[in-house]
Amino acid sequence: MNRIERLLSSMTLGEKLGQLTMTACGYAVTGPTIAGDSTAAIKSGAIGNLLNLVGASDVHEMQKLAVEQSRLGIPLLIGYDVVHGHRTLFPVPLGEAALFDPVAWELTAREAAKEAAADGLALTFAPMLDVSRDPRWGRSAEGPGEDPWLGTCIAAAKVRGFQGDDLSKADALAACAKHYCAYGPVTAGREYASVDISERTVLEVHLPPFVSAVHAGVAAIMPAFTDLAGVPMTANTAMLRGWLREKLGFNGVIISDYNAIAELIHHGIAADKPAAAALALKAGVDIDMMADAYRHGLPIALERGLVTLEEIDAAVRRVLELKERLGLFDDPYRRGARSENAADLQNRRQRSREIGARSIVMLKNAEAALPLTGRVKRLALLGPLADASAEMRGPWWGAAGATGQVTVLEGLRASFPAAQITHAAGVPIADDDVSGMSAALQCCEGTDAIVLCVGEAAAMSGEAASRAHLGLPGVQRAFCEVVFARARQLHIPVIVVLFSGRPLVVPWLIEAADAVLAAWFPGSEAGNAIGDLISGRSSPSGRTAVSWPRAAGQVPIFFGERPSGRPAAAGDHFTSKYLDVANDPLFPFGFGLTYGKFELSKLRVTPRSASQSQSIEARIEVANGGARAAEETLFLFTHDVLASVARPLLELRAFGKIKLAPGARGTVTLSFAASELRFLGINLQPVFEFGDVEILVGPCADRSKLLSAVVHLVP
Ligand code: BGC
């Protein structure tokens, strides 16, 4: 008998349920405490897993209670939301998506894992893989953006990065892909609201990133809080047991979201905790996070005959297996045994700076307002986000302190050491206090340029942060307008740095500014990353991973829409359009300016006729006709022109990058397997249909900017 079976055969019911329980830690002056319970619960084996505990010595202290003082000595599994860095923060995930660089996506997860593991942790509740096409939903900031295929690329890179090549290593974290699945299309973009979308959309849009995570070997999965057409994910047997376990062969651990099992009562599908616990266990949830429904409810559910001991044992077995894979039985103190050295930390900060700069999307640069060169002698730095260390973290800041981020003020001082920089916030982020406005205007006098830092506070995106108005909060718009007016009188340019966890609907701002950098939330090195771009030390290369709306009424907005029977046509009334705004986004998916000037030509696609087993390759020539070195990103989309089920107008299949010096040219090759052109037919089964498929290559999802060719699919 192996270790796990031996343990199982000697465990009491209480000890088994302890392994299925995850409880949050709080901190008292004296050290870590456990909410609503005492450390006695760990010693008695009634709690087997913890969350929200960081710091090697505190983790080891708790671990000691389990390993040395509980009857069976089973180590604790301790998890934390390491979403975009732990103590050193990288850009929020939506910002990082803008890099379109799997190597970087993997690297930031690897670095975060090393840092979190050095803090004693063994599990992260990441990556967050919810495709989001509705910027009202605050959690858009945590995820991969609007495109399912992009989500699959990010999923694989993140799982590899967090978990490394061997989960038992001292610097590996178990990843937990979340929130499975279809959490993004909550009704009206409102957090935790019901989801009711077609099975096809679930399978084609929301499932693929999770399939990719499973294929990459993800250790755990967290069901979403939400219901899908009336069946909460926490109790969704078809999605958990059916899809995850049976169809995808996932045999890792399923961890409920925070209190989600008890919330089955609010959803209206369970009368009490025992019933809720039974539904979740039956559906396939192994660990109960924070509801205490398994611990207290499953014994009653057993008595009622709602669950069997075998079902409980199967869940316990999976939890113990994960602990074993993590090496926790062999050495529960391995993670956090050594602290990281200063050079590693320094190197990580440097990576954060580079990746921060690469996540920033330049939305406008009229008359080459950027970069500001050395001739700038005096700069006015304005706005509530100009000197805001805590906000630079964005949502889910891990264990990063409020003061550890480089602010824009600090970054610009370092980037322009010879310039005189005057600074004022002007107005707060969200309140309507205008008393600081006139002092801010004073700062503009005699300066060569204004850098205006506006946007959302970190906590305005992330969980429980839906917004119905997608403009600048508070009185920031009024402030910006007086700044623009003054700048026009003074004939000086205004560079806007926009911070947000979602694309903000601010067409007036983009119109009035000379240059706009969408900075998302860049993390620990925010100010330096921004300084690098503004000074021209780095060249902007980020590309938005979400369509950027003109009006909030356009959402949900995404490039992968299906064709209408009445496509929009100017002057033709009965076509698919708005009376008051254009259909297209202000900035399409993939948009982002650079300091170069790229021209694309000569798209060559081979073969011109392809069977399912072939690979399709597109080559395109790129020339930089600009005056500065820059990096261009190319996207390859397909459109299946005629199919048994209408296919999206564009489907992303590949992306690639090329760096070119001024005047230089080069070739970018993008390829994908023809088998990817399979889709779910009328009966939701995969089909490969013969006929013409358009291959479109270019800088973003705006069809008018894409070069195209046709490939004929054959048997
Ligand atoms: C969130 C999860 C998170 C968990 C633990 C929940 O409220 O939805 O994403 O992992 O809390 O912090």
Topology:
Layout: H1 3-10, H2 13-19, E1 21-28, E2 31-34, H3 40-43, E3 49-51, H4 56-69, E4 77-80, H5 93-97, H6 102-117, E5 123-124, H7 148-163, E6 174-180, H8 199-206, H9 208-215, E7 220-223, E8 227-228, E9 231-232, H10 237-247, E10 253-254, H11 264-267, H12 273-283, E11 288-289, H13 293-303, H14 309-325, H15 342-359, E12 361-365, E13 378-382, H16 408-415, E14 420-424, H17 437-444, E15 449-455, H18 476-490, E16 494-499, H19 507-512, E17 515-518, H20 526-535, E18 598-606, E19 609-610, E20 615-624, E21 630-640, E22 651-660, E23 665-673, E24 679-680, E25 686-687, E26 691-698, E27 707-713
Parallel strand pairs: 1-3, 1-11, 3-4, 4-5, 5-6, 6-7, 7-10, 13-14, 13-15, 15-16, 16-17, 19-27
Antiparallel strand pairs: 1-2, 8-9, 12-17, 18-20, 20-23, 21-22, 21-26, 24-25, 26-27
Helix pairs in contact: 2-13, 6-7, 7-9, 12-13, 15-20, 16-20, 17-18
The structure holds beta-D-glucopyranose (BGC).
The site of beta-D-glucopyranose has 7 residues, from loops.
What does this structure look like?
- This protein is of the alpha/beta class and 715 residues long.
- 29% of the residues lie in helices and 20% in strands.
- The chain is built from 20 helices and 27 strands.
- The radius of gyration is 26 Å and the shape is globular.
- The two termini are 52 Å apart.
- The model has no long low-confidence stretch (mean pLDDT 97).
- Beta-D-glucopyranose (BGC) binds next to loops.
| Residue runs with pLDDT of under 50 for 5 or more positions | none
Strand content: 15-25%
How much helical structure, as a percent, in the residues? Answer: 25-40%
The number of helical segments is 20
Q: Main β-sheet: number of strands, strand sense, barrel status?
A: 9 strands, mixed
How many whole angstroms does the radius of gyration measure?
26 Å
Query: How would you state the average pLDDT, rounded?
Result: 97
The tally of strands reads 27
Instruction: Compute the separation of the termini in Å.
Output: 52 Å
Q: What does the overall shape look like?
A: globular
Which ligands, by name, code or SMILES, are bound?
A: beta-D-glucopyranose
Which structural category fits the helices and strands?
alpha/beta
